[in-house]
Amino acid sequence: MNKLSIIRSNISALANLHGKKSKLDNLPTYFWLEPTNNCNLKCVMCPTGMDMLEVDKGFMDFDLYKKIIDEIKNYTSAVTLAVSGESLYHPKFFEMARYAADSGIKPLLNTNATMLTPNKAEMLLDSGITFISFAFDGFKKSQYEKARVGADFDKTLGNIINFLELKKSKGKDLPYTVLSILMLGLEECSEEEKREFLARFDGLIDEIRVREVSTWGSSFKNSDNFSFRQNSLYYPPCSRLWSTGVISWDGTVLPCIYDSNHELAMGNVKEQSFADIWNGDSMLKLRNSMLDGTFLKYSPLCENCIVLGTPPIMGIPSGIRLTIADSITNVFGYGFERMALLLANKLRKGNFTSKTVN
């Protein structure tokens, strides 16, 4: 990975976006690859957990995964190994992470941590993973278990603490670790309860973030299972279409991580190169619909999207901020993300979509 070329690619993406170009001379530097869309929980804010998936479930073939990595490694900075399922379910997850790392790509993980046994904790530390976000949506047992249905608060918390203590005992700086707590509004929690919970991570975790919840576009826009922001204003175009790639477990290229039912399949890497799909007819039509304001007719899934509904900061749209921040962390480390979140919350007077609380 050439750090400067990654930054240049993101500058090109931003220039192409502002220049209203739909056919791009940049390729995405950040990917979401889906090891599996299977999950062991029934989370109230997730299409998989709520049995809303209409597509087949499965596990990405390791040879297909290697083919993808081999194609994208020359222009990619990072891959998050998660989309619609629990990635630790995949029997070759650790081999997947190692293959990306050995190919010069940073492998990142989002996990519910319910399957993070002591043995897997050891394997995870040795896998090359550089960043882990632990999805743990609650400050107390009753709050957490209402959101993460099927999970046990104490057991899962123990899994996370064990991993963090193991990382500390080995003196490892990476992976950078974040505890992610969605603001679901399922149950009130006192400030004292929050302080007691957060204190368990003192000296162990890099960041604890509270985040607004996504409705997966229109998937949960009428749901009363949890509270969320109604996005009545949109700030198109969706800059993720200019800067990120998404590939499902079966090789389907998607425009967005929220397209869990593959409503807008752009192509399949079993049949075409990703680069060809990136500037193929389907992607051009979707980008053009963003540019001319007809995107809701072309893609009803985009309704109430948290990415489209979040305004730009200093001319930088919501979706592309992810890839720009990632490219800068290659130079300054993951601490840059913490500083960027602090700045964003100052500019938004504490009303940004995510904030660090430790």
Summarize the model shown:
35% of the residues lie in helices and 12% in strands.
* Count of helix runs: 12
Low-confidence residue ranges: none
Structural class: alpha/beta
Mean pLDDT: 95
As a percent range, the share of strand residues is 5-15%
Rg of Cα set? 19 Å
**Alpha carbon gap, first and last residue:** 32 Å
Helix proportion = 25-40%
Strand/helix succession: HEHEHEHEHHEHEEEEHHHHHE
Q: Given the C-alpha coordinates, what overall shape results?
A: globular
Query: How are strands sequenced across the largest beta sheet?
Result: 9-8-7-1-2-3-4-5-6-10
Oligomer: single chain
Let me know the largest β-sheet.
10 strands, mixed
| Strand count | 10
Could you please describe the fold and organization of this structure?
- The protein is an alpha/beta fold and 358 residues long.
- Helices cover 35% and strands 12% of the residues.
- It has helices spanning 3-18, 62-72, 93-102, 118-125, 141-147, 153-169, 191-199, 274-278, 281-292, 295-298, 318-332, 335-347; strands spanning 30-33, 78-80, 106-111, 131-135, 176-182, 207-211, 244-247, 252-254, 267-268, 354-356.
- The chain has a ten-stranded mixed sheet with strand order 9-8-7-1-2-3-4-5-6-10.
- Strand 3 (106-111), helix 4 (118-125) and strand 4 (131-135) form a beta-alpha-beta unit.
